[in-house]
Write a structure and sequence with these properties.
With 485 residues, the protein is of the alpha/beta class. The protein has two domains: 94 residues, Double Stranded RNA Binding Domain; 323 residues, tm_1862 like domain (pyruvate-formate lyase- activating enzyme, Alpha-Beta Horseshoe), CATH 3.80.30. It has 18 helices and 17 strands. The protein has a nine-stranded mixed beta sheet, sandwiched between helices. A four-stranded mixed beta sheet has the order 1-2-3-4, with helices on one face. Helix 1 links the parallel strand 1 and strand 2. Helix 8 runs parallel beside helix 9.
Length: 485
Protein backbone atom coordinates (compact mmCIF):
# COMPACT_ATOMS: atom_id res chain seq x y z
CA UNK A 1 0.00 0.00 0.00
CA UNK A 2 1.30 3.44 -0.89
CA UNK A 3 -0.31 6.75 0.09
CA UNK A 4 0.47 10.18 -1.36
CA UNK A 5 -0.84 13.20 0.55
CA UNK A 6 -0.73 16.80 -0.62
CA UNK A 7 -1.97 19.43 1.82
CA UNK A 8 -3.47 16.79 4.12
CA UNK A 9 -1.65 15.74 7.30
CA UNK A 10 -3.86 12.93 8.60
CA UNK A 11 -2.34 10.18 6.46
CA UNK A 12 -2.80 7.63 9.24
CA UNK A 13 -6.59 8.02 9.17
CA UNK A 14 -6.68 7.17 5.47
CA UNK A 15 -4.41 4.21 6.06
CA UNK A 16 -6.83 2.88 8.70
CA UNK A 17 -9.73 3.36 6.30
CA UNK A 18 -7.86 1.43 3.59
CA UNK A 19 -7.39 -1.46 6.02
CA UNK A 20 -11.16 -1.75 6.45
CA UNK A 21 -11.14 -3.01 2.86
CA UNK A 22 -7.64 -4.56 2.86
CA UNK A 23 -6.97 -5.77 6.45
CA UNK A 24 -3.36 -5.95 7.62
CA UNK A 25 -1.93 -4.44 4.43
CA UNK A 26 1.14 -2.58 5.64
CA UNK A 27 2.53 0.69 4.39
CA UNK A 28 5.57 0.13 2.19
CA UNK A 29 7.31 3.02 0.46
CA UNK A 30 9.07 0.59 -1.88
CA UNK A 31 5.71 -0.22 -3.46
CA UNK A 32 5.46 3.27 -4.99
CA UNK A 33 6.61 2.05 -8.41
CA UNK A 34 4.91 -1.35 -8.23
CA UNK A 35 2.09 -1.36 -10.82
CA UNK A 36 0.16 -3.95 -8.77
CA UNK A 37 0.38 -2.04 -5.47
CA UNK A 38 -2.62 -0.32 -3.94
CA UNK A 39 -1.98 3.38 -4.58
CA UNK A 40 -3.92 6.14 -2.81
CA UNK A 41 -3.59 9.86 -3.54
CA UNK A 42 -5.43 12.46 -1.46
CA UNK A 43 -5.01 16.20 -2.06
CA UNK A 44 -6.22 19.46 -0.54
CA UNK A 45 -5.35 22.45 -2.72
CA UNK A 46 -7.20 25.60 -1.73
CA UNK A 47 -10.89 24.92 -2.31
CA UNK A 48 -10.25 21.79 -4.40
CA UNK A 49 -10.31 18.41 -2.66
CA UNK A 50 -9.57 15.21 -4.54
CA UNK A 51 -8.96 11.50 -4.03
CA UNK A 52 -7.55 8.95 -6.45
CA UNK A 53 -7.40 5.20 -6.02
CA UNK A 54 -5.49 2.81 -8.28
CA UNK A 55 -5.09 -0.96 -8.09
CA UNK A 56 -3.70 -2.75 -11.11
CA UNK A 57 -5.61 -1.54 -14.15
CA UNK A 58 -8.51 -0.16 -12.13
CA UNK A 59 -8.52 3.54 -11.27
CA UNK A 60 -11.02 5.84 -9.56
CA UNK A 61 -10.93 9.63 -9.23
CA UNK A 62 -13.23 12.09 -7.48
CA UNK A 63 -13.01 15.75 -6.57
CA UNK A 64 -15.07 18.44 -4.85
CA UNK A 65 -14.85 22.22 -4.76
CA UNK A 66 -15.89 23.56 -1.36
CA UNK A 67 -16.97 27.00 -0.17
CA UNK A 68 -14.31 29.40 1.11
CA UNK A 69 -15.54 29.09 4.70
CA UNK A 70 -15.33 25.29 4.43
CA UNK A 71 -11.86 25.37 2.85
CA UNK A 72 -10.30 26.63 6.08
CA UNK A 73 -12.00 23.94 8.17
CA UNK A 74 -9.44 21.12 8.48
CA UNK A 75 -11.91 18.59 9.92
CA UNK A 76 -14.51 19.27 7.22
CA UNK A 77 -12.02 18.95 4.36
CA UNK A 78 -10.38 15.79 5.64
CA UNK A 79 -13.81 14.23 6.29
CA UNK A 80 -14.93 15.10 2.75
CA UNK A 81 -11.85 13.42 1.28
CA UNK A 82 -12.45 10.35 3.46
CA UNK A 83 -16.03 10.11 2.18
CA UNK A 84 -14.83 10.20 -1.44
CA UNK A 85 -12.17 7.61 -0.71
CA UNK A 86 -14.62 5.29 1.05
CA UNK A 87 -16.96 5.35 -1.92
CA UNK A 88 -14.05 4.57 -4.24
CA UNK A 89 -13.02 1.60 -2.12
CA UNK A 90 -16.62 0.37 -2.24
CA UNK A 91 -16.64 0.69 -6.04
CA UNK A 92 -13.33 -1.20 -6.22
CA UNK A 93 -14.22 -4.06 -3.88
CA UNK A 94 -18.01 -4.21 -3.89
CA UNK A 95 -17.91 -4.03 -0.09
CA UNK A 96 -19.96 -1.33 1.66
CA UNK A 97 -18.72 -1.20 5.30
CA UNK A 98 -21.65 -1.08 7.73
CA UNK A 99 -19.77 1.30 10.02
CA UNK A 100 -18.75 3.55 7.15
CA UNK A 101 -15.76 5.73 7.96
CA UNK A 102 -15.65 4.77 11.62
CA UNK A 103 -12.49 2.80 12.33
CA UNK A 104 -12.18 3.31 16.11
CA UNK A 105 -13.08 0.70 18.70
CA UNK A 106 -15.60 2.90 20.57
CA UNK A 107 -18.35 4.09 18.20
CA UNK A 108 -20.84 4.27 21.08
CA UNK A 109 -18.66 6.77 22.89
CA UNK A 110 -18.74 9.01 19.80
CA UNK A 111 -22.50 8.62 19.40
CA UNK A 112 -23.03 9.49 23.06
CA UNK A 113 -20.78 12.53 22.85
CA UNK A 114 -22.58 13.84 19.75
CA UNK A 115 -25.97 13.15 21.34
CA UNK A 116 -25.09 15.09 24.49
CA UNK A 117 -23.74 18.00 22.45
CA UNK A 118 -26.26 18.22 19.60
CA UNK A 119 -29.22 15.98 20.48
CA UNK A 120 -30.12 12.48 19.28
CA UNK A 121 -31.52 13.51 15.90
CA UNK A 122 -28.44 15.50 14.87
CA UNK A 123 -26.07 12.83 16.24
CA UNK A 124 -27.74 10.16 14.13
CA UNK A 125 -27.75 12.45 11.08
CA UNK A 126 -23.99 12.87 11.42
CA UNK A 127 -23.49 9.13 11.75
CA UNK A 128 -25.60 8.62 8.61
CA UNK A 129 -24.45 11.47 6.36
CA UNK A 130 -20.98 12.38 7.62
CA UNK A 131 -19.64 8.98 8.68
CA UNK A 132 -21.71 6.86 6.22
CA UNK A 133 -22.91 4.45 8.94
CA UNK A 134 -25.75 2.14 7.91
CA UNK A 135 -29.27 2.56 9.29
CA UNK A 136 -29.06 -0.90 10.84
CA UNK A 137 -25.98 -0.01 12.88
CA UNK A 138 -27.41 3.38 13.86
CA UNK A 139 -30.50 1.64 15.26
CA UNK A 140 -28.31 -0.84 17.16
CA UNK A 141 -26.21 2.06 18.47
CA UNK A 142 -29.28 3.98 19.61
CA UNK A 143 -30.53 1.00 21.62
CA UNK A 144 -27.10 0.25 23.08
CA UNK A 145 -26.37 3.81 24.19
CA UNK A 146 -29.74 3.99 25.95
CA UNK A 147 -28.84 0.94 28.03
CA UNK A 148 -25.23 2.04 28.58
CA UNK A 149 -26.35 5.39 29.97
CA UNK A 150 -28.17 3.70 32.85
CA UNK A 151 -24.92 1.99 33.87
CA UNK A 152 -22.69 5.03 33.39
CA UNK A 153 -24.91 6.97 35.80
CA UNK A 154 -23.63 4.69 38.58
CA UNK A 155 -20.13 6.16 38.37
CA UNK A 156 -18.94 9.11 40.49
CA UNK A 157 -15.89 11.37 40.28
CA UNK A 158 -13.94 9.20 42.72
CA UNK A 159 -15.06 5.87 41.24
CA UNK A 160 -12.77 3.16 39.89
CA UNK A 161 -12.91 -0.46 38.82
CA UNK A 162 -10.42 -3.24 39.52
CA UNK A 163 -9.06 -5.65 36.91
CA UNK A 164 -7.23 -8.85 37.87
CA UNK A 165 -5.16 -10.54 35.16
CA UNK A 166 -4.40 -14.26 35.10
CA UNK A 167 -2.41 -14.71 31.86
CA UNK A 168 -2.52 -18.52 31.67
CA UNK A 169 -4.58 -20.79 29.40
CA UNK A 170 -4.84 -24.57 28.99
CA UNK A 171 -3.98 -24.09 25.29
CA UNK A 172 -3.84 -21.19 22.85
CA UNK A 173 -6.84 -20.63 20.57
CA UNK A 174 -5.95 -20.08 16.92
CA UNK A 175 -7.61 -16.63 16.82
CA UNK A 176 -6.25 -15.33 20.13
CA UNK A 177 -4.30 -12.06 20.29
CA UNK A 178 -4.17 -11.77 24.09
CA UNK A 179 -0.95 -12.22 26.01
CA UNK A 180 -1.22 -15.60 27.70
CA UNK A 181 0.94 -18.62 28.43
CA UNK A 182 -0.18 -22.21 27.97
CA UNK A 183 -0.12 -24.25 31.15
CA UNK A 184 2.20 -26.80 29.55
CA UNK A 185 4.94 -24.18 29.40
CA UNK A 186 4.20 -22.05 32.44
CA UNK A 187 2.72 -24.25 35.19
CA UNK A 188 5.82 -23.99 37.37
CA UNK A 189 5.44 -20.18 37.47
CA UNK A 190 1.90 -20.18 38.85
CA UNK A 191 2.58 -20.53 42.62
CA UNK A 192 4.99 -17.58 42.68
CA UNK A 193 2.74 -15.62 40.33
CA UNK A 194 -0.21 -16.05 42.70
CA UNK A 195 1.92 -15.00 45.69
CA UNK A 196 3.00 -11.79 43.95
CA UNK A 197 -0.47 -11.10 42.57
CA UNK A 198 -1.79 -11.10 46.13
CA UNK A 199 0.99 -8.70 47.11
CA UNK A 200 0.09 -6.37 44.24
CA UNK A 201 -3.57 -6.49 45.28
CA UNK A 202 -2.56 -5.40 48.79
CA UNK A 203 -0.38 -2.55 47.50
CA UNK A 204 -3.05 -1.34 45.07
CA UNK A 205 -5.76 -1.44 47.74
CA UNK A 206 -3.59 0.63 50.04
CA UNK A 207 -3.19 3.26 47.31
CA UNK A 208 -6.95 3.29 46.63
CA UNK A 209 -7.71 3.76 50.33
CA UNK A 210 -5.23 6.63 50.65
CA UNK A 211 -6.96 8.41 47.76
CA UNK A 212 -10.51 7.68 49.05
CA UNK A 213 -11.44 6.00 45.79
CA UNK A 214 -14.75 4.17 45.49
CA UNK A 215 -14.76 0.67 43.94
CA UNK A 216 -17.65 0.03 41.53
CA UNK A 217 -16.79 -3.27 39.80
CA UNK A 218 -14.22 -6.08 39.87
CA UNK A 219 -13.32 -8.22 36.87
CA UNK A 220 -10.94 -11.19 36.85
CA UNK A 221 -9.90 -12.10 33.32
CA UNK A 222 -6.97 -13.35 31.35
CA UNK A 223 -6.07 -15.71 29.87
CA UNK A 224 -8.26 -18.13 31.73
CA UNK A 225 -8.43 -17.52 35.50
CA UNK A 226 -9.84 -21.01 36.08
CA UNK A 227 -6.51 -22.54 35.05
CA UNK A 228 -5.65 -21.79 38.69
CA UNK A 229 -6.57 -24.41 41.28
CA UNK A 230 -9.54 -23.92 43.59
CA UNK A 231 -7.16 -23.03 46.43
CA UNK A 232 -5.25 -20.51 44.31
CA UNK A 233 -8.46 -18.87 43.10
CA UNK A 234 -9.72 -18.56 46.65
CA UNK A 235 -6.38 -17.08 47.78
CA UNK A 236 -6.49 -14.35 45.13
CA UNK A 237 -10.19 -13.56 45.45
CA UNK A 238 -10.08 -13.50 49.25
CA UNK A 239 -7.25 -10.96 48.99
CA UNK A 240 -9.63 -8.70 47.06
CA UNK A 241 -12.43 -9.03 49.62
CA UNK A 242 -9.96 -8.58 52.49
CA UNK A 243 -8.17 -5.52 51.10
CA UNK A 244 -10.84 -3.54 49.24
CA UNK A 245 -14.09 -1.95 50.40
CA UNK A 246 -16.72 -3.79 48.34
CA UNK A 247 -19.74 -2.02 49.81
CA UNK A 248 -20.41 -0.07 46.57
CA UNK A 249 -19.52 -2.85 44.12
CA UNK A 250 -22.22 -3.51 41.52
CA UNK A 251 -20.50 -6.52 39.97
CA UNK A 252 -17.77 -9.03 40.76
CA UNK A 253 -17.01 -11.20 37.72
CA UNK A 254 -14.64 -14.09 37.10
CA UNK A 255 -13.98 -15.43 33.60
CA UNK A 256 -14.43 -19.19 33.76
CA UNK A 257 -13.97 -19.03 30.04
CA UNK A 258 -12.75 -22.48 29.09
CA UNK A 259 -15.23 -25.20 30.12
CA UNK A 260 -12.39 -27.74 30.33
CA UNK A 261 -10.91 -25.76 33.25
CA UNK A 262 -14.16 -25.59 35.23
CA UNK A 263 -14.81 -27.91 38.18
CA UNK A 264 -17.42 -27.86 40.95
CA UNK A 265 -14.63 -27.22 43.45
CA UNK A 266 -13.38 -24.13 41.60
CA UNK A 267 -16.89 -22.73 41.18
CA UNK A 268 -17.59 -23.28 44.87
CA UNK A 269 -14.38 -21.46 45.80
CA UNK A 270 -15.26 -18.54 43.50
CA UNK A 271 -18.77 -18.32 44.94
CA UNK A 272 -17.50 -18.45 48.56
CA UNK A 273 -15.28 -15.47 47.79
CA UNK A 274 -18.29 -13.28 47.03
CA UNK A 275 -18.22 -13.44 43.23
CA UNK A 276 -21.70 -13.06 41.77
CA UNK A 277 -21.07 -13.36 38.02
CA UNK A 278 -19.11 -15.86 35.93
CA UNK A 279 -18.53 -16.13 32.21
CA UNK A 280 -18.49 -19.57 30.58
CA UNK A 281 -17.46 -19.22 26.95
CA UNK A 282 -18.12 -21.99 24.43
CA UNK A 283 -17.52 -19.73 21.35
CA UNK A 284 -19.39 -22.39 19.33
CA UNK A 285 -21.49 -25.47 20.02
CA UNK A 286 -19.86 -27.37 17.16
CA UNK A 287 -17.28 -29.95 18.24
CA UNK A 288 -15.52 -29.93 14.87
CA UNK A 289 -15.04 -26.15 14.94
CA UNK A 290 -13.84 -26.33 18.55
CA UNK A 291 -11.11 -28.76 17.51
CA UNK A 292 -10.10 -26.67 14.52
CA UNK A 293 -9.64 -23.49 16.58
CA UNK A 294 -7.55 -25.21 19.26
CA UNK A 295 -10.04 -25.34 22.12
CA UNK A 296 -9.57 -28.57 24.02
CA UNK A 297 -13.10 -29.01 25.25
CA UNK A 298 -16.30 -30.48 23.91
CA UNK A 299 -19.84 -29.19 23.65
CA UNK A 300 -20.81 -31.67 26.36
CA UNK A 301 -18.34 -29.98 28.72
CA UNK A 302 -20.07 -26.64 28.05
CA UNK A 303 -23.38 -28.09 29.22
CA UNK A 304 -21.68 -29.65 32.23
CA UNK A 305 -19.99 -26.39 33.22
CA UNK A 306 -23.31 -24.55 33.01
CA UNK A 307 -25.00 -27.14 35.22
CA UNK A 308 -22.20 -26.86 37.78
CA UNK A 309 -22.33 -23.04 37.77
CA UNK A 310 -26.06 -23.01 38.42
CA UNK A 311 -25.68 -25.66 41.13
CA UNK A 312 -23.00 -23.51 42.79
CA UNK A 313 -25.55 -20.72 43.15
CA UNK A 314 -24.56 -18.36 40.32
CA UNK A 315 -27.56 -16.39 39.12
CA UNK A 316 -25.69 -14.20 36.65
CA UNK A 317 -23.88 -16.21 33.98
CA UNK A 318 -22.50 -14.89 30.70
CA UNK A 319 -21.65 -16.95 27.62
CA UNK A 320 -19.40 -15.81 24.74
CA UNK A 321 -19.90 -16.72 21.09
CA UNK A 322 -17.84 -15.94 17.97
CA UNK A 323 -19.37 -15.37 14.54
CA UNK A 324 -17.22 -15.95 11.47
CA UNK A 325 -15.03 -18.77 12.75
CA UNK A 326 -13.13 -20.55 9.99
CA UNK A 327 -15.22 -23.43 8.63
CA UNK A 328 -18.41 -22.50 10.49
CA UNK A 329 -21.63 -22.42 8.45
CA UNK A 330 -24.78 -20.37 8.85
CA UNK A 331 -26.76 -23.47 9.82
CA UNK A 332 -24.16 -24.48 12.43
CA UNK A 333 -24.12 -20.96 13.86
CA UNK A 334 -27.93 -21.00 14.08
CA UNK A 335 -27.70 -24.17 16.15
CA UNK A 336 -25.12 -22.54 18.40
CA UNK A 337 -27.26 -19.46 19.04
CA UNK A 338 -30.39 -21.55 19.64
CA UNK A 339 -28.46 -23.93 21.91
CA UNK A 340 -27.04 -21.12 24.02
CA UNK A 341 -30.43 -19.44 24.37
CA UNK A 342 -31.86 -22.78 25.53
CA UNK A 343 -29.26 -22.80 28.34
CA UNK A 344 -30.81 -19.52 29.53
CA UNK A 345 -27.71 -17.50 30.54
CA UNK A 346 -28.34 -14.01 31.89
CA UNK A 347 -26.12 -12.48 29.21
CA UNK A 348 -24.58 -13.46 25.88
CA UNK A 349 -21.62 -11.66 24.32
CA UNK A 350 -21.47 -12.09 20.56
CA UNK A 351 -18.01 -11.48 19.09
CA UNK A 352 -16.96 -11.41 15.46
CA UNK A 353 -13.71 -13.09 14.48
CA UNK A 354 -10.84 -10.60 14.36
CA UNK A 355 -8.25 -11.89 11.91
CA UNK A 356 -4.64 -12.06 13.03
CA UNK A 357 -3.40 -12.11 9.46
CA UNK A 358 -4.90 -11.54 6.05
CA UNK A 359 -2.34 -12.73 3.51
CA UNK A 360 -5.14 -14.11 1.34
CA UNK A 361 -6.76 -10.66 1.10
CA UNK A 362 -4.91 -9.50 -1.99
CA UNK A 363 -5.94 -8.69 -5.53
CA UNK A 364 -7.94 -11.59 -6.91
CA UNK A 365 -9.28 -12.65 -3.50
CA UNK A 366 -11.60 -9.74 -2.76
CA UNK A 367 -14.63 -11.89 -3.53
CA UNK A 368 -13.55 -14.42 -0.89
CA UNK A 369 -13.15 -11.68 1.73
CA UNK A 370 -16.56 -10.22 0.89
CA UNK A 371 -18.18 -13.65 1.15
CA UNK A 372 -16.71 -14.19 4.62
CA UNK A 373 -17.95 -10.76 5.72
CA UNK A 374 -21.42 -11.36 4.30
CA UNK A 375 -21.66 -14.70 6.11
CA UNK A 376 -20.57 -13.15 9.43
CA UNK A 377 -23.16 -10.37 8.94
CA UNK A 378 -25.89 -12.98 8.42
CA UNK A 379 -24.77 -14.71 11.59
CA UNK A 380 -24.99 -11.47 13.57
CA UNK A 381 -28.42 -10.70 12.12
CA UNK A 382 -29.75 -14.09 13.21
CA UNK A 383 -28.25 -13.71 16.68
CA UNK A 384 -29.71 -10.23 17.09
CA UNK A 385 -33.13 -11.41 15.95
CA UNK A 386 -33.21 -14.43 18.27
CA UNK A 387 -31.73 -12.67 21.30
CA UNK A 388 -34.07 -9.70 20.97
CA UNK A 389 -37.09 -12.00 20.62
CA UNK A 390 -36.01 -13.86 23.78
CA UNK A 391 -35.80 -10.70 25.91
CA UNK A 392 -32.10 -9.80 25.67
CA UNK A 393 -31.04 -6.21 25.00
CA UNK A 394 -27.72 -4.78 23.75
CA UNK A 395 -25.86 -3.06 26.58
CA UNK A 396 -22.33 -2.51 25.25
CA UNK A 397 -20.60 -2.53 21.88
CA UNK A 398 -17.03 -2.27 20.67
CA UNK A 399 -14.99 -3.00 17.57
CA UNK A 400 -11.53 -4.36 16.74
CA UNK A 401 -9.21 -3.93 13.81
CA UNK A 402 -9.30 -6.75 11.28
CA UNK A 403 -12.82 -7.88 12.17
CA UNK A 404 -14.46 -10.03 9.50
CA UNK A 405 -16.91 -7.83 7.59
CA UNK A 406 -15.86 -4.74 9.58
CA UNK A 407 -18.61 -5.62 12.06
CA UNK A 408 -18.84 -5.34 15.87
CA UNK A 409 -18.89 -7.18 19.20
CA UNK A 410 -22.06 -6.76 21.25
CA UNK A 411 -22.97 -7.67 24.79
CA UNK A 412 -26.61 -8.77 25.16
CA UNK A 413 -28.28 -9.22 28.52
CA UNK A 414 -31.56 -9.65 30.24
CA UNK A 415 -32.52 -6.34 31.91
CA UNK A 416 -30.68 -6.00 35.21
CA UNK A 417 -27.96 -8.54 34.36
CA UNK A 418 -25.60 -6.29 32.40
CA UNK A 419 -21.85 -6.64 32.86
CA UNK A 420 -21.14 -3.16 34.20
CA UNK A 421 -17.34 -3.48 34.04
CA UNK A 422 -17.60 -3.95 30.27
CA UNK A 423 -19.46 -0.66 29.94
CA UNK A 424 -17.11 1.26 32.23
CA UNK A 425 -13.97 0.15 30.41
CA UNK A 426 -15.34 0.64 26.89
CA UNK A 427 -16.64 4.11 27.68
CA UNK A 428 -13.45 4.95 29.61
CA UNK A 429 -15.79 6.23 32.32
CA UNK A 430 -13.42 6.13 35.26
CA UNK A 431 -10.05 4.83 36.42
CA UNK A 432 -9.27 1.13 36.03
CA UNK A 433 -6.68 -0.08 38.55
CA UNK A 434 -5.19 -3.24 37.06
CA UNK A 435 -3.04 -5.94 38.65
CA UNK A 436 -1.26 -8.96 37.23
CA UNK A 437 0.79 -9.82 34.16
CA UNK A 438 -0.10 -7.79 31.08
CA UNK A 439 -2.49 -5.58 33.06
CA UNK A 440 -2.76 -1.89 32.16
CA UNK A 441 -3.86 0.65 34.76
CA UNK A 442 -5.84 3.47 33.10
CA UNK A 443 -6.04 6.66 35.14
CA UNK A 444 -9.01 8.84 34.16
CA UNK A 445 -9.23 12.53 34.97
CA UNK A 446 -12.88 13.35 35.84
CA UNK A 447 -14.91 15.35 33.30
CA UNK A 448 -12.23 15.35 30.60
CA UNK A 449 -10.81 12.72 28.23
CA UNK A 450 -7.34 12.76 29.76
CA UNK A 451 -6.16 9.18 30.40
CA UNK A 452 -2.71 8.12 31.56
CA UNK A 453 -1.54 4.50 31.57
CA UNK A 454 0.74 2.43 33.79
CA UNK A 455 1.81 -0.85 32.21
CA UNK A 456 2.64 -4.08 33.99
CA UNK A 457 5.08 -6.44 32.32
CA UNK A 458 3.30 -8.75 29.90
CA UNK A 459 4.67 -12.20 30.55
CA UNK A 460 4.54 -14.13 33.85
CA UNK A 461 8.33 -14.57 34.06
CA UNK A 462 8.81 -10.80 33.62
CA UNK A 463 6.06 -10.08 36.13
CA UNK A 464 7.86 -12.26 38.68
CA UNK A 465 11.45 -11.19 38.02
CA UNK A 466 10.70 -7.44 37.79
CA UNK A 467 7.92 -7.16 40.36
CA UNK A 468 9.60 -4.45 42.46
CA UNK A 469 10.12 -2.32 39.38
CA UNK A 470 6.41 -2.52 38.59
CA UNK A 471 5.47 -1.53 42.13
CA UNK A 472 7.61 1.60 41.74
CA UNK A 473 5.49 2.45 38.72
CA UNK A 474 2.36 2.17 40.87
CA UNK A 475 3.40 5.34 42.64
CA UNK A 476 2.25 7.08 39.49
CA UNK A 477 -1.35 6.50 40.61
CA UNK A 478 -0.95 8.82 43.59
CA UNK A 479 1.01 11.32 41.51
CA UNK A 480 -1.81 11.42 38.94
CA UNK A 481 -4.50 12.09 41.53
CA UNK A 482 -2.36 14.69 43.30
CA UNK A 483 -1.99 16.50 39.99
CA UNK A 484 -5.49 16.31 38.54
CA UNK A 485 -8.01 15.48 41.26
Amino acid sequence: MYIITDGIKSRYEYEKLARVFFPDQKMNEREADDPDALRIEVRWQGRLLSSKLKLGEREFYDEATVEEAQAVDKNFCELTVAQMLCRQFTALTGFNPPWGLLTGIRPMKLLRMLTHEYGAEEAERRFREDYLVSEKKIALGRHTVRNEDKILALSQDNSFSLYLSVPFCPSRCSYCSFVSQSIEHAAKLIPQYVELLVREIEITAEIARSLSLRLESVYMGGGTPTTLSAEQLETVLDAVTRCFDLSHVHEFTVEAGRPDTVTPEKLAAIRRSGVGRVSINPQTLNDGILRSIGRRHTVEQVYQAMDWAKAAGFENINMDLIAGLQGDTLESYHRTVDGVIALDPESVTVHVLAMKRAARLVTGHIAEYNAEGALAAQMLDYGQQRLTATGYEPYYLYRQSGMVGNLENVGWSKPGSEGVYNVFIMDETHTILAVGGGAVTKLKQPHVNNIERIFNFKYPYEYISRFDEMMERKKGITEFYDKFC
